[in-house]
Amino acid sequence: MSLPTSPRRLARPGVRLAAVTVAAALALAACAGSDSGADPTSATDAADEEVTIRFSWWGSDSRHALTQQVIDAFEAKHPHITVEPDFTTWDGYWDKLSTSIAGGDAPDVITQEERYLREYGTRGVLLDLGEVEDTLDTSGIDPSVAESGSFDGATYGVATGVNAYVVLADPQAFADAGVEMPDDTTWTWDDYVEIATKISEASGGTVFGTQDYGFNEPAFSIYARQHGQSLYKEDGSLGYKDSLMADWWKISLALQESGGQPEASRSVEIDGAGPEGSLLGTNTGAMGVWWTNQLGAISKASGRELQILRFPGESESKRTGMYFKPAMYYSIAKTSKHPEEAALFVDFLLNSTEAGQLLLSDRGLPANLEVRTAVTPSFSDADKQSAEFLEGLREDIVDGVAVPPVGAGEVVPLIKRINGEVLFGQITPEDAAAKFTSEVTAATQK
Predict the structure, then answer these.
(1) Are 54 and 86 in contact (CB under 8 A)?
(2) What is the pTM of this model?
């Protein structure tokens, strides 16, 4: 596997910006480095200049509580810096962020998601993090995601942690059905359909073999990569043939027709129920596709020990399709009045073992490899399994995916709608693929 070499500091593609003044350089040098080992007292600390920065993120109440603990720990080390929390749920996050930016009041540190990173970067909202490379150290970041926030000659985000899109399986459901667990290094898509169908038949329909995978585009991204194609190319254009996407939907229909997955109405209902209300979470299914960081929540809901599997088809086509995804990104607003303090806070989030012990896998398995190793003993059993799985997967990962184009955020509701039309038989897989391509092109090539 060929992975990018992680730089000592943030990579600065293209022409470097003008050097800062000698006085500024001295100040930066004084506060550079990770809180995990460096003297937390900076030149600004000594001057006791009061600074307030705002940090925005989305999530649950538990994430908000954990993040506040991290903020408290950072402020204890840097008493002159106040971090103002700015959080909401995922559903309201992007509207709130857009309103803040439009009003000239962007948060200093912004939590980003890959579908929106290019949009905000190209709009001039985000700082090129190369400008704060003397404060924000990325030398310990997992090489598989170290450059994932870079495009157009600049770096607009640094990964918070690492996830992978996988198949989660319930060994007890397999055993109850008298079906052997698959060898996930060799199983094919035909095997996937056959296994799911056998489980459903053995249970008399009380336990389904799997949950529909078509409501989220990463599943198709993996399928396309397995066939030497891609959802998006580096330039933001689409990188697959409609015939391939049609084949992907045909697999889903085959599962529905065989009873390997639920009927259309129930599939739509289950998709809206989230991880806890999934087939796995309610002990009514044997498999489903989820992100590795969702293993804990689904395992807790099910009360069972679930197992992580590779996607089917990884060994049957042109190449492997699975990839490491940054769980989220930390970005800094270009309009921030305190970019160095914002960078110091991001550095603490990424590189401090103290922060890592608090957050654990909340934002994916820590992107900093040293922090990940240090906090692994504190992981839950589910997170330990995820960390072990990702490490074992590393040698099979060929490369990462391109940063999604501007407008990619619109793809989520789009694919959910079209997938529902396919499941209900309102549209053929071929017409669905053509429709998806047309609507995604319109959304991303404005």
Answers:
(1) yes
(2) 0.83
